[in-house]
Amino acid sequence: MNNYRKIIDEFRLGKDESLLDDFRSIHNGKEGYGESGDKNYQNRKNLILELYENYSVEDKPLIKWLLQEELKGFEFDIPVYTTDLCAFMIYKYMIIEDIYDLYDAKFGAGSDHQGFVDVELIFGLNKDETKTFLKNDDARKELNNEMLATIEWYESNPNAKFKSREEYIVYFETRKAKNIKLDLEDY
């Protein structure tokens, strides 16, 4: 068993965040094209790739933690690909409340994420169910209204073709994930 798998398994059992200290997003002072300014990006990338190979609903706390670190790292010019993997892993095992994490993955870290992370993620389990949830959840009314407006804006495009949840999962697992892994070899 490799060290990354060991960390994943140990975190799954105890949710001990001290296991993740070497994966936190920390600026290393580097800047410029092709430079990752995140001291732990390589380590976190490898953990995410290992997790993607074998994950389950029990891994959602770890995936959400990693997603938040990825979103912090956008300020240090890290690639968006690992954010996309984390968002997809949440999506695959999502409950309706996870819609907020998925919205954050697409819109919480700059235009690269907005362009690269697929819109199907913010449609949740089902567009209509998601919109009903957002309309009826009073706890985050302002954010919910923003999310509803975003979904409705995408829906207003008469030429758009959106994948169903099932189609999107197949697409991501058979095509997009392979391309992401190839792209990550450069980083």
Q: Give the assembly state of these chains.
A: single chain
Order of helices and strands: HHHHHHHHH
Radius of gyration: 17 Å
Distance between the termini: 24 Å
> Roughly how much helix do the residues carry, as a percent range?
55-70%
Describe the global form.
Answer: globular
How many domains? 1
Strand content: under 5%
**What value does the average pLDDT take?**
90
Unreliable stretches, pLDDT < 50, 5 or more residues? none
Total strand segments: 0
Task: Report a brief summary of the structure.
This protein has one domain.
Description:
The two termini are 24 Å apart. 32% of the residues are buried. With 187 residues, the protein is mainly alpha-helical. It has helices at residues 3-14, 41-53, 60-73, 81-92, 99-107, 111-116, 127-136, 141-155, 165-184. The model has no long low-confidence stretch (mean pLDDT 90). Helix 2 packs parallel to helix 4, helix 4 packs antiparallel against helix 5 (99-107) and helix 4 runs antiparallel to helix 9 (165-184). The protein has one domain (3-117, 165-184).
